[in-house]
Design goal:
- The protein is an alpha/beta fold.
- Helices cover 29% and strands 21% of the residues.
- The protein has helices at 7-16, 29-46, 63-66, 78-88, 101-107, 119-126, 188-202, 227-241, 251-254, 281-284, 287-290, 349-352, 381-387; strands spanning 24-28, 49-53, 72-75, 91-95, 113-116, 134-138, 177-179, 211-213, 244-247, 258-269, 273-277, 310-315, 324-330, 339-343, 363-367, 373-377.
- Helix 6 (119-126) links the parallel strand 5 (113-116) and strand 6 (134-138).
- Helix 7 (188-202) packs parallel to helix 8.
């Protein structure tokens, strides 16, 4: 969306915007809590457990608020699991495409659930697997509605999840749950179809399971999401098979709850007006480059089409020729020193940002519910130097 989520959110940010140093990620605590309340409603109505997916949002300074509402975190590596154990302090559910022997030992110190991507790995670690941890197998439900193959874990040739034709039920001893992930920012209607395909392939094994993890990609906090249908799906599965349903949203937790703030450093001409920002598409919003420009973020007060009178190409400060956000139109020409606000930037960008070209990482701040801005992390030269030692 190109506008603020609410008039109140606009006022909160506009009150502090003139005084901030950029580049800066800003989490709006009030907007985050609004999303958490929606997720809490799903938990209360359905009995499901909901975990924060750290791969999408690992800002641990926000964990004190999030853990008031959610059951724990899901991790994909020993570092994420350790962060969840130390800073979130509730359940840690870990899945990885494969674990080294060292990884597995570390994960047994921090995880409550460990999910394997193959029966080979389960058999490899089974003899040394501590009994106080729940173990699961990720399966491939064979159905997804994701157009971009890079984001589709069910596409032919995917390395994620055991396909039904390679499932080995004779090796299920010690396995207490199954896991699938087949959504990417989608609704309950898509989930319903994925579940139908999953049950057709794997439903006969669910009666011997204690839990079913339906992964992430659930757009639960998006306006118009069919929460009634989601709760019906969860309730039916739990009742039919006598198990606990778990969800692992990442984006839904922080959907539309924060911003990336940038400043125009310079303006130039080369066939069209061009503005150079202190924010880099390559380093700070890598989904733009990684998706071959299929994704472009919104900018408050701007349009991604030419319907406003002044069209500008926006570029980052690196030496990469393709470090570009693309073309946006504005009501007035851009000028050096002007601040731009990219909304809905909490998911994935902070965890994926790099120091490419020595570019400074954006600082991180929380806009508290009382309207005060707290900068919780500043980055500098030592972060770049340490990363490249």
């Amino acid at each position: 969306m190109s506008d603020f989520r609410s008039p109140e959110a606009a006022v909160r940010l506009q009150n502090v915007l003139p005084h901030v140093e950029t580049p800066l990620f800003v989490l709006d605590e009030q907007l985050l809590e609004a999303n958490l309340k929606i997720l809490k409603t799903v938990k209360e109505r359905s009995g499901a457990k909901i975990y924060l997916a750290l791969k999408g949002f690992a800002m641990w300074k926000a964990f004190p608020l999030i853990r008031e509402y959610l059951d724990g975190v899901c991790a994909s590596s020993p570092h994420e699991a350790k962060l969840g154990k130390e800073e979130f302090g509730k359940e840690v559910c870990t899945f990885g495409a494969a674990y080294s022997d060292t990884d597995f030992v570390e994960l047994t110190k921090t995880s409550d659930h460990i999910i394997f991507n193959s029966f080979r790995q389960w058999q490899h670690f089974k003899k040394t697997a501590p009994a106080n941890i729940d173990y699961g197998i990720r399966v491939n439900p064979g159905y997804a509605e994701i157009d971009i193959d890079a984001y589709n874990p069910c596409v032919l040739g995917s390395r994620l999840g055991v396909p039904s034709e390679h499932f080995q039920p004779e090796l299920l001893e010690g396995i207490s749950g199954l896991h699938f992930h087949a959504l990417c920012g989608q609704g309950a209607e898509t989930l319903e179809k994925v579940v139908a395909n999953f049950e057709e392939r794997f439903g006969k094994y669910l009666h011997q399971m204690q839990w079913l993890n339906m992964g992430g990609g659930h757009y639960i906090t998006e306006p118009g999401y069919n929460i009634d249908l989601l709760c019906q799906i969860i309730t039916r599965l739990q009742t039919t098979y006598g198990l606990q349903i778990m969800l692992e949203p990442g984006e839904a937790v922080v959907l539309d709850t924060g911003y990336l703030l940038a400043t125009v450093l310079d303006t130039i001409e080369n066939g069209m007006p061009i503005a150079i920002l202190d924010v880099s598409a390559q380093a700070h919003v890598p989904d733009i480059i990684g998706s071959n420009y299929q994704y472009r973020p919104e900018i408050i007060g701007a349009s991604k089409t030419a319907d406003k009178p002044h069209t500008w190409r926006l570029g980052g400060p690196t030496c990469l020729a393709g470090d570009s956000f693309g073309d946006y139109s504005f009501d007035a020409p851009l000028v050096p020193g002007q601040k731009l606000v990219f909304p809905n930037m909490m998911q994935y960008n902070m965890v994926q940002a790099t120091t490419f070209n020595g570019i400074k990482l954006p600082d991180i701040a929380i806009l508290r519910k009382n309207g005060e801005l707290e900068v919780v992390r500043k980055f500098g030269y030592e972060d770049f130097k340490g990363r490249n030692s």
